[in-house]
Design brief:
Rossmann fold; six-stranded parallel sheet; 16 helices; 15 strands; seven-stranded parallel sheet; globular
Length: 403
């Protein structure tokens, strides 16, 4: 088969399926990516020129869509060039959120188009956390509505859409949901697995942590309220005061990925340290920035309690990796977390805003680890049964592609 991938950060969600197709052999694989793409691309590529700074519009609310249309047009110029060379894909697999899929049908009307449908924005997230979004310009709600334009148009053209979790599929309008399959990208449970011999060294001069140590882990791409960073930081002084041997390792950058930045112009890390830093023993709180995947897995293997909080939004890969590695996940009672975690069976759930409840749950996990051994084992089984890369997710992806 001839399969074309469109993803501005390729491989992104297509990492595993692209690798599997390469291992199968007999496929002609090609990725179209922007110039300057620095990621590792294991298949041939073509590049397009796209300068976000040159995208202009006088209508503020149209900026998000204008950027997507401009990117789609840049991609289309490459696709037309491929067509002129006689290239005709059997399948185009594209992320729907960035605009790359907007003009695929104009170039190849007959190809099979599959769109990764990660999320459809609604006002559920806007009204979820009044503390953070209550002080934001009310036009932010309208901004979110405009963010759906490119994804909606891509799905209208698509033969099928793919959403990672049931809840993420459910937030799309009814007229689009019939096109959606729920297929996660998959977790490599052979890599993300429990290990009694795991250890993590905290810096050159820091301690080495092993399973059985009172390690609390918290992981975000960027530390921000969308993933409950403010709630976690408020619970942390109470946890550390009650557990003198405990340490917290916090993974994530200082930028913002999803919601608005602080109005002060500082990072959310700086904002929260200004609020609670005086109550923290900072010698036991380790901000490690972004870490390589193998190090992240070691943290999960050692973790005594992994805290994962989220607004109703996209489910992070990290929480599934943590469960696969045998970590005890203490999560928020929100979707799509509840798609995966059942309280008391394969994890522990707290109200997102309940700082005291979160502190109690983490403290109990640190004080009585044996109570949670069965929950850890059930978490691992959940990933094996529902999200395993080789036995569950890849076969469904390959079936969708017809490969």
């Amino acid at each position: 088969m001839r399969i074309l991938f469109l993803h501005q950060n390729f491989p992104g969600q297509f990492l595993h399926v692209a690798a599997a197709l390469g291992r199968q052999g007999g496929h002609d694989l090609l990725a179209v990516v922007p110039e300057g793409h620095n990621g590792r691309i294991p298949i041939p590529r073509r590049t397009y020129r796209f300068d976000l700074k040159r995208v202009q519009t006088s209508v503020r609310l149209a900026r998000h869509y204008t950027e997507r249309v401009a990117r789609g047009a840049a991609v289309a110029s490459v696709l037309y060039g491929l067509r002129a060379e006689g290239y005709e894909p059997d399948v185009v697999l594209a992320h729907g959120g960035w605009g790359e899929a907007l003009f695929v049908r104009d170039v190849w009307p007959a190809c099979r188009l599959i769109v990764h449908a990660e999320f459809h924005y609604t006002d559920v997230g806007v009204g979820f956390d009044p503390e953070i979004l209550g002080g934001v310009d009310p036009r932010y709600r309208i901004d979110l509505r405009t963010r759906n334009a490119a994804m909606t148009l891509a799905l209208l053209d698509a033969d099928r859409g793919v959403a990672p979790t049931p809840w993420q599929a459910s937030v799309f309008p009814a007229f689009l949901r019939d096109k959606l399959e729920v297929v996660h990208e998959g977790i490599d449970t052979r890599l993300a697995r429990p290990s009694a011999n795991a250890e993590v060294r905290l810096g050159q001069e820091g301690p080495t942590l092993r399973p059985g140590d009172e390690l609390i882990t918290f992981v975000n791409r960027n530390l921000e309220p969308h993933r409950g960073f403010h709630i976690f930081m408020r619970a942390l002084p109470h946890i550390l005061a009650r557990r003198p041997a405990a340490r917290a390792v916090i993974v994530g950058g200082d930028a913002h990925s999803y919601g608005p930045p602080p109005t002060s112009g500082k990072s959310w890390k700086a904002v929260m340290l200004a609020e609670v830093g005086h109550a923290l023993d900072l010698s036991r709180v380790h901000f490690v920035g972004r870490t390589p995947y193998p190090t992240l897995l070691q943290l999960f293997q050692v973790s005594a309690a992994h805290v994962y909080l989220s607004y109703p939004y996209v489910l992070s890969w990290s929480v599934l990796d943590a469960m696969s590695a045998g970590a005890l996940v203490i999560g928020s009672r929100t979707q799509p977390v509840e798609d995966v975690i059942e309280h008391g069976r394969n994890g522990v759930l707290c109200d997102f805003f309940d700082v005291a409840g979160l502190a109690d749950a983490v403290t109990d996990a640190l004080a009585h680890p044996a109570r949670y051994a069965a929950i850890r084992q059930a978490a691992r089984r959940t990933i094996e049964q529902r999200f395993d890369l080789e036995s569950v997710c890849l076969p469904r992806w390959l079936e969708l592609l017809g490969a």
